[in-house]
């Protein structure tokens, strides 16, 4: 009786009904990807064979992560279906083809042989190691048997030579004995190794049998989830048509990144800014040679307005004590400082200024599905800049080189990390803020070791006026800045640095803040509305300079909390 190999080996188990294989899978390559903030839209385009009437197509394999409700399939109106436009035709190249239904079919299939996954158990890894060791041992046994077969053939040839030589009267016992010794010396170590290998094969097979039994008792077979697209299409005539399928997949994102290179020319300094994108994807499919588009769109963001709750306001009369006093706080406002030592956030969200921004990679890119960041070049430009050596001693004693330039990239610059490169090479990493096209922005290139700034502060408190009439509290703060240029190379050019110090700004009429001109030298170049005082110093090699300023904070007697 002929045994069907498809039937199960155990006769006690019921025979499985043969599954309908259906149409073969048709490969439809990924040609374009639009990567968004937390997912990607994948486009597949390819040629398919259509039969007249209603037929079924299976496109795959595809990633099981494909979002069902985002699936869209259509036939191209002409051969230009792979363009960026979304033109819809009444029929593919005159075939009258149209897609009636499209869905994602997911199935579990046995995992393909190979290395166990990263999450595999120790028992499964042991079974895999024993299987590999058994395969290697069998290969070694085949090589030993082949070598022994060659030795046996040599022994047979030698016996025939001895028989023919002895019968013909041409005896040479010494030569025959030497050759017999050589044949035996070649055979003995191989025979010993083969016997040892057979014992090892028996042990490996026994261990593997026990490990497989334990694996079958404690773990079920790990099937792999696969998927394909099933399309129901209708065509008036048979022929070849171009099919386009798009759909959303999660586990993909991108973030902007930059590289700024400073050319510190004395006459015309410039900065070259390269805009790149880091792309991550772990969708289960590699993107090979695709046209990549980067978008800040959020397709899953809810468009419904938030629910409004009741906000109850109540009025009450102030007490007499509250009318007599004014409570103030010394609030520390964060003043953004270029060249701050704080590093960029690990992975910030995309700040697009409220509008969807779209960037295109100039060349086809390849992004494997490994979950690792891959850098994709987008644009670059070189612009003239203004170089300033600045220091905010209250925040940091370092003098930082800051450049100011205009965005000539032709698109907005999204917030992201920027690698800083100068003549000496890579100097660090900073953060680039959101900048519109044509706007001015700043890039800090690290500190200058040739300068040193030391800051000393003093504070005193006094009371003036008569109690309960015009008594006022006066807080005087004195700040001294010592600036030194450490390099003393003769003939070196003078260097200019800018120092910025803040003066408190009062928001209530009961508190007044004023600089003390008598204790301020030199006078600040400017003091802006936020209270930032700026001094510009020009220092020759080895020079030292000092800045001193003071201000009074005067508060009425009714002010508390100062």
Describe the 3D structure.
The chain is built from 3 helices and 28 strands. It is an alpha+beta fold and 562 residues long. It folds into 4 domains: 25-111 and 224-249, no CATH class; 122-218; 252-298 and 339-447, no CATH class; 451-560, no CATH class. Strands 2, 3, 5, 8, 11, 13 and 14 form a 7-stranded mixed β-sheet that branches. The radius of gyration is 40 Å and the shape is elongated. The N and C termini lie far apart (103 Å).
Helix-strand layout with pairing:
Blueprint: E1 25-26, E2 30-35, E3 40-50, E4 53-62, E5 72-75, E6 98-110, H1 122-167, H2 173-218, E7 223-235, E8 239-249, E9 252-263, E10 270-281, E11 287-295, H3 320-324, E12 326-327, E13 358-360, E14 365-367, E15 374-384, E16 386-391, E17 400-406, E18 416-422, E19 425-432, E20 440-447, E21 451-464, E22 472-485, E23 495-502, E24 511-515, E25 526-527, E26 532-539, E27 544-556, E28 559-560
Parallel strand pairs: 1-4, 2-11, 9-18, 12-28, 16-23
Antiparallel strand pairs: 2-3, 3-8, 4-7, 5-8, 6-7, 9-10, 10-15, 11-13, 11-14, 16-17, 17-20, 18-19, 21-22, 22-27, 23-26, 24-27, 25-26
Mean pLDDT: 83
How many helices?
3
From the alpha-carbon coordinates, what is the Rg to the nearest angstrom? 40 Å
N- and C-termini, Cα separation: 103 Å
Domain count, please report it. Answer: 4
Strand % is: 35-45%
Low-confidence stretches: 1-21, 79-91, 335-346
* Shape annotation: elongated
Helix share, percent:
10-25%
What is the makeup of the main sheet?
A: 7 strands, mixed
Structure summary, number of beta strands:
28
Backbone structural class: alpha+beta
């Amino acid at each position: 009786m002929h045994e069907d190999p498809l039937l199960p080996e155990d006769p006690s188990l019921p025979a499985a009904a043969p599954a309908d294989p259906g149409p073969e899978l048709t490969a439809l390559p990924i040609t374009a990807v639009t990567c968004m903030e937390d997912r990607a839209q994948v486009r597949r385009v390819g040629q398919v064979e259509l039969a007249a009437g209603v037929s079924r197509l299976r496109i795959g394999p595809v990633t099981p992560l494909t979002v069902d409700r985002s699936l869209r399939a259509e036939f191209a109106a002409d051969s230009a279906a792979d363009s960026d436009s979304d033109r819809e035709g009444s029929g593919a190249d005159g075939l009258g083809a149209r897609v009636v239904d499209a869905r994602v079919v997911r199935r579990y299939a046995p995992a393909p042989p190979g290395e166990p996954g990263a999450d595999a158990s120790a028992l499964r890894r042991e079974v895999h190691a024993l299987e590999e060791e058994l395969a290697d041992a069998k290969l070694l046994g085949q090589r030993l048997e082949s070598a022994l077969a060659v030795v046996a053939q040599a022994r047979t040839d030698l016996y025939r030579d001895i028989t023919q030589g002895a019968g013909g009267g041409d005896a040479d016992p010494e030569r025959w004995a030497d050759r017999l010794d050589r044949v035996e010396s070649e055979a003995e170590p191989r025979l010993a190794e083969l016997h040892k290998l057979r014992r090892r094969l028996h042990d490996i097979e026994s261990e593997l049998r026990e490990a497989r039994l334990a694996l079958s008792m404690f773990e079920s077979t790990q099937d792999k989830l696969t998927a394909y697209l099933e399309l129901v299409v209708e065509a008036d005539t048979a022929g070849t048509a171009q099919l386009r399928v798009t759909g959303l997949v999660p586990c993909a994102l991108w973030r902007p990144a930059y590289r700024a290179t400073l050319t510190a020319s004395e006459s015309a300094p410039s900065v070259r800014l390269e805009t790149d994108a880091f792309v991550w994807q772990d969708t289960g499919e590699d993107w090979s040679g695709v046209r990549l588009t980067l978008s800040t769109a959020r397709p899953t963001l809810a468009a419904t307005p938030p629910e409004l709750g009741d906000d109850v306001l109540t009025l009450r009369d102030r007490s007499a004590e509250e009318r007599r006093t004014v409570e103030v706080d010394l609030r520390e406002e964060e003043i953004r400082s270029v060249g701050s030592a704080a590093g960029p956030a690990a992975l910030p969200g995309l700040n697009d200024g409220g509008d969807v921004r779209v960037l295109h990679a100039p060349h086809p890119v390849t992004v494997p599905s490994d979950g690792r960041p891959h850098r994709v070049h987008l644009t670059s430009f070189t612009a003239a800049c203004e170089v300033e050596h600045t220091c905010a001693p209250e925040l940091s004693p370092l003098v930082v080189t800051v450049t100011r330039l205009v965005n000539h990239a032709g698109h907005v610059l999204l917030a992201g990390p920027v690698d800083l490169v100068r003549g000496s090479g890579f100097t660090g990493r900073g953060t680039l803020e959101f900048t519109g096209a044509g706007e001015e922005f700043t890039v800090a290139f690290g500190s200058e070791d040739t300068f040193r700034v030391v800051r000393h502060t003093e504070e005193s408190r006094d009371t003036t006026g008569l109690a309960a009439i015009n008594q006022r509290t006066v807080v005087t703060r004195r700040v001294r800045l010592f600036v030194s240029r450490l390099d003393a190379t003769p003939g070196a050019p003078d260097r200019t640095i800018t120092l910025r110090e803040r003066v408190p700004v009062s928001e209530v009429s009961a508190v007044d803040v004023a600089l003390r001109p008598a204790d301020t030298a030199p006078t600040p170049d400017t003091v802006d509305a936020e209270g930032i005082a700026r001094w510009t110093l020009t220092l020759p090699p080895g020079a030292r300079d000092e800045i001193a300023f003071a201000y009074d904070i005067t508060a009425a007697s009714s002010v508390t909390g100062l």
